[in-house]
Amino acid sequence: MEVLKEITGVKKNWTPLVKGWDVPTGESVIDHITTFVSNALGSKKGTRLSCGHLIPEDTFPLERYNGCPFCGTPFEFGKIETYGQGSKLKLLDYWKENDLQRFFCDLLQSKTALDATQTESLQILLTYCTIPEQVSVGMKETLMLVVDTLIDQDRSAECSRLFTSPHDILRYLWYKHTGFLQVVEPKTIMNRIARNNQHVFQPADESVLAKIQSEADLKLRYNRKECRRVTQWLNDLPMDAEKVAEIMHPKRSMWVRFIRALRLAEYSKRKGFENLARLLDVFYNETYSVWQGKVNHYRLKTDADNTFRLLKQRPGLFARSLFSNMLWFGPEVTLSHFREVLDQLPARLLLTLNMYAQTYFEQDTFRSVQPLGSTRKRISSHPLLKLYDEKILQKMKDSIEGLCLEAMQLRFSELENSNKTVFIDSQLFNVPLSIGDRSETVQDLPSALMGTRFPVQGDKVRLFMRWGEGLKAQHLDMDLSCFVGYPDGVTDYCSYLQLVIPGCKHSGDIRSIPHQVGTAEYIELDVTKLSSRGAQYVSFTCNAYSTGGLSLNLVVGWMDSQFPMKISEKTGIAYDPSCVQHQVRVTKSITKGLVFGVLDVEKREVVWLEMSFAGQVVNNLDLKGVKVLLGKLDSKLSIGNLLTLKATAQNLSLVDSADLADEVYDAQWATNTAAVSRLLVD
């Protein structure tokens, strides 16, 4: 029970700025201007608050506020007053030791990148569970967590057999230095930090100083023990020096810095490190050829035979460049060569090709991408698409879809399965398969895959945001906002600038956090009113208005209930843990804005998604980018469709009841995203 209270924040402060904020206070811009002038001129007529500001008479109704309405500093706090307003019970599963071990192995063997929730779970389990010898790690990012645990247990010698390339070693070194499981370039991190420290009310020098500080933080420093460990890893790599140097080439500038910081030149002169000495000689003298350079050379000469001869040597890179090669050389010749390596590709790549072909071959459209360390962006379609007519492009889509599904069906049919019947929950046809989506937020309640749709039970959806817990009192301004989209491009915002708009009410803008206890903001959406006004989408956003990124203990989510949800007239607290439909916790972020959900007003569904964007306020959000991301999620193969493909390949009969089935795939099973990844058979 204590764990549940901690997760749902029962003992934390949820007091907003305004009491009974569902009834507007009537504050206006004139009130803020009058207060500013009175304080600037040193007026003594009014009420002096503990923050030092004087509130003139006939401006803000002070009896309605829990803090200063001018600077947004809270003074009064209360406790949650209402519980149990939610109309649904939450199910707890009792796990035995075997269940825990199975979940642990699922995480280790996952064929898709773990999200932040799974990563945190794996880090906890690695301290308690022993890694089985027969279990192979499915993803490089997961491998970094395993290696880190082995080193903490003073078992670094075992890591040599786990590293198969120098990029694995670089990835681990960078993870230990920055916390990123992917190799995000130093300049990307520094530029992002500098942009996050640009503030409309602060001089530009702030961002320059932040960039200088980030550069200092990224400097490499290693002791002798660490240098010796990495030296041994590089020396033990199971490939020749030319091959190792070629793999190091794309990150050459980073490797030069690591070689110096790790004193590899010094260690290479010692006995037993002859392989390392040979590697450094080849690397610095550049006596190696770069495979990608050869591919680019033949491709620019439109030499299909030599281009595909090289690509077939590395099937994964062939798959990642398949679409552009189809446009460059033509679909027939490209796919004929691609068929030769189809059986060598991991299932996640095949399904990715099938899902993204629908949006890639669309003319005059945009695609949603997220570069490493950056926010999600929308990019225009490939210019070569204009050389093809719609019928040929549609044929390309159909060819890829048929090829990938045929390959998956063949793989499923080769797996032995003694079962005869299967039950597939209808909800799984609305949940997209999570491939290529990486997350920076942790879901402490039952987790959901990005793109999962939550039906709205009542007429109200209440957004909430809490931050500042455990921090000293300071100016730390996080903003909860929503972006309302209407037909014909008409938009509206509910934020600190507009506390009340048709269908939306904000609880007030808090700009300074109290000491240690944290604070909260809310927005209530009236779905019926929004629908009557013709609203299409409502995007849920949070932003860091202060310098820097989103607060690392920030929690956002939304509540919903079949029955009316109360708002305290005494304190304004509107949080009820039983009504929480979904919530996430920000763990590591170098972005200033986050879209954490979208309300589809017509369908009365909330779509869970995680889309980072740049900017201090909700007005910086690109609505077209949100629509492009939703389109990308809709184009993905659903878990239900993949299970249906599996059932067909294995001659399983679909039944309507879980009690009658040998295999059961329900909504509860889908919450174990590690178990879902077992479908990606290799």
Question: Would you give an account of this structure?
Answer:
There is one protein chain. This protein is α+β, with helices and mostly antiparallel strands and 682 residues long. The protein is built from 25 helices and 23 strands. The strands form six sheets. The chain has a seven-stranded antiparallel β-sheet. Helix 5 crosses helix 6 and helix 19 runs antiparallel to helix 20. The relative contact order is 0.14. The mean pLDDT is 87.
Write the layout of secondary structure elements.
Layout: H1 2-8, H2 29-41, E1 47-48, E2 54-55, H3 97-109, H4 116-126, H5 140-152, H6 166-178, H7 186-196, H8 205-217, H9 224-235, H10 241-248, H11 252-261, H12 264-267, H13 274-285, H14 291-300, H15 304-311, H16 315-320, H17 322-329, H18 331-338, H19 347-360, E3 366-369, E4 377-380, H20 390-413, E5 421-424, E6 441-442, E7 453-455, E8 460-469, E9 474-475, E10 478-485, E11 491-494, E12 500-501, E13 504-506, E14 512-513, E15 517-526, H21 527-532, E16 537-544, E17 555-560, E18 580-586, E19 593-600, E20 605-607, E21 611-613, H22 623-635, H23 639-649, E22 653-654, E23 663-665, H24 667-670, H25 673-676
Parallel strand pairs: 5-22, 5-23
Antiparallel strand pairs: 1-2, 3-4, 6-18, 7-20, 8-15, 8-17, 9-14, 10-11, 10-16, 12-13, 13-15, 16-19, 17-18, 19-20, 19-21
